[in-house]
Amino acid sequence: MNDKKLYDCLVIGCGMAGSVIARELAERAGKKVLILEMRGHIGGNTYDFKDKNGILIHGYGPHIFHTNSKRVFDYLSRFTTWRNYSHEVVGDIHGQLLPIPFNLNSLHLAYEPSKAGRIEQKLIDTFGFGSKVPILDLRQQHDPELVEIADFIYKNVFLYYTQKQWGLAPEQIDSLVTARVPVFISHDNRYFQDTYQGIPAQSYTSLFAGMLDHPNIELSLNSEARKRLRLESGNVFFDDNPFNGTIIYSGPIDELFDCRYGRLPYRTLDFVFETHEMTWYQPKGTVNYPVNQDYTRITEFKHLTGQVLNERTTIVKEYPRAYTGADSETPYYPIQNPENLTLYERYRTLIAEFPNFHVLGRLAEYKYYNMDAIAAKALELADTLIG
């Protein structure tokens, strides 16, 4: 069987990026699409399944869908109904649970009423009610009480957590990363304020199964693209045959070229799942541990999924560390700094000589994306390719 005659498009990776673009090319453009997925399952890092205790868990850490894009929400809603869920996170600050991101409710829990009231008014006067202030901006204020609250948040909410998560001091991290954990001048305890929020009512895996259910899509699991693709002098070979169709690559861009310039740095996570004989382990879906413990957070899945099981519950603890490239590891967070971005651009330049080769997604673009942003990028790329 000669694959080059069977497929118009090759899609590498079956996460959000690959699945959306595959469905679009198959459905809107009528293309025959082959998806190569190195794992044994669909859905990428959003893959979920029931553990041996019957509890639906997210195998690669918690994923909560949220977006302000009606197009993305409507698109994914074709393949799932939604459980109405707004994520709330608290941080264990020396035994006291405070809403995270730090907000005005956190302020009133951390300080006595009169002082909290004064600081609240100063925050509103300085930044405006409803604003989200990066912690590094708050630390630049001159008012003594604003400096005090900034230092409290910095030391107790941000500093150690960031060091655990990234293995770096906060000043070494790109401002786009630090801005992801702002101080919220609001009484809204929701972790996200997007218009559309929720969890697929059945599962993320069923959402992806619906998306990939199209006669023009063929899926090959446990299929490592690097062993089947060869890029050579502007030509693409698939299974040793010339391939002139469209290729969408969502895997690690450095590994596509055998890391010839060096490996792009990432942070990875070790997940420790535990099942406990109790109805609830903690009061919210996620509890962060910014000042103690080696792990960064604990997530309890029943809060997210709405499963009703009174006798047991499953949690996961997350331990960040450096990514080494071992087969057992997953690269999660690109470490974006000038040196690493320069290295990425060297790899990106290698792609330029292949006109029908497109990179898409967090690993291929060396950029952190939320799920909705990945879906939006895939839809935009489809618009461009389909015209």
From TrEMBL:
GO molecular function terms listed in the Swiss-Prot or TrEMBL record: flavin adenine dinucleotide binding; UDP-galactopyranose mutase activity
Protein name: UDP-galactopyranose mutase
UniProt superkingdom: Bacteria
Keyword Membrane: no
InterPro entries associated with the record: UDP-GALP_mutase, UDP-GalPyranose_mutase_C
Enzyme Commission designation: 5.4.99.9
Keywords on record: FAD, Flavoprotein, Isomerase
GO cellular component, as recorded: cytosol
Cofactor (UniProt): FAD
SUPFAM superfamilies reported for this sequence: FAD-linked reductases, C-terminal domain, Nucleotide-binding domain
Family membership noted in the UniProt record: Belongs to the UDP-galactopyranose/dTDP-fucopyranose mutase family.
UDP-galactopyranose mutase C-terminal domain segment(s): 157-368
Organism whose genome encodes this protein: Desulfosporosinus acididurans
Top enzyme category: isomerase
